[in-house]
Amino acid sequence: MPNPLVEKIRDVVTPPAEAAGYEVVDVEWKREQSGWVLRLFVDKPSGVSHSDCERLSREISAVLDVHDLIPHAYSLEVSSPGLNRPLRTIDHFRRFVGQQARVRLRIGTEGRRNFVGTITGVDDTGEKVILKVDGQEFALPLADLDKASLEYRFK
Asked: With left for phi above 0 and alpha for psi between -120 and 50, is residue 121 left, alpha or beta?
């Protein structure tokens, strides 16, 4: 079940991030030992540098202050999604056809919830991701997606 606060934050930070040329890949809101942390994972076609993260952090911080969605202290972290980048949308899966992915479903299909395989495409409706696992293709409903990420394998 998506967190309503995370979805509000995503709605507020996406327009300024996109205007600056970035894609908001994922948003995390977590309580950690040091306190509350808001993590934004961003990307752009040429990749994300440390200075990109710093600049976007300042811009997003100002936007979050104006909207005042979070009533207590928190730390904002802006970073690249990394090699094992999260996959959230059907467009993410389309972009990475041919790549390895790890997918966890909330309810599951065919008696399983966890899959690791090659993204072979999406169905015609754009509602299911096709993942090939050990020679068998599974049509995994995006609506049941709990967590998914690329599975980078070092050679």
From this structure: left
